[in-house]
UniProtKB/TrEMBL annotation:
Taxon lineage: Archaea, Methanobacteriati, Methanobacteriota, Stenosarchaea group, Halobacteria
Pfam families membership: DUF7998
Biased composition (Polar residues): 187-201
Region Disordered, annotated ranges: 163-201
Protein name according to UniProt: DUF7998 domain-containing protein
Sequence ranges assigned to domain DUF7998 in this UniProt record: 34-183
Species of origin: Natronobacterium texcoconense
Amino acid sequence: MGNTFGGSYWTVRSLGEIDMNPFARGSTADGDAGFDDISEFVPEHLPDPGSFLEGHEILVDEDHVDFHELTRDLFEERGVYDATFGYNLVRLNLDHRHPEAGYRYAVEADDPTVLRAEFTPTTEFCPQADALTKGSFRAWNGLSDRHEYDLVRVRVRPNHHQAEAVNDSLERLESEYVETGEIPGENESNGETGTRTESPF
């Protein structure tokens, strides 16, 4: 079996291999009520692209669906889960209760090898925004051999109350990755390939 609840329950984990995620409820057929199918592009249930994506090629239709389906697998592998709702963060885009929350993507205008991803939390005071965006960055770039982009840049939407601090931290993470080719903290002790980022709640 995989994990027990001996550790902190409110943990967004970024691990190389996960046999069973303790948050993985809601992935059964019964849990699909109130969610769009991941194979469908439903723009009215997605956040509008924000300033980080402005002027770039927004992914829509099959392009959005294809990358989001891939993201589901990467997030599952790295344990990028929303602790509030207890599901893979990809499902936030599909959740009818939160049509203005989740990820939107755009190919960078001057460099098609770079993808931009902007995260809109469910509220401007979401305490998980820092952990979730960093976990996303680590999943996309730590498993970059699984997609066509050399770099996935991640930012939280500016209306989050800590957007400036979160985005500054993401920019530093990105700069170090671009400079060294390695994600800071990706090879920690105890044989883990990722890091653990604790949510304050």
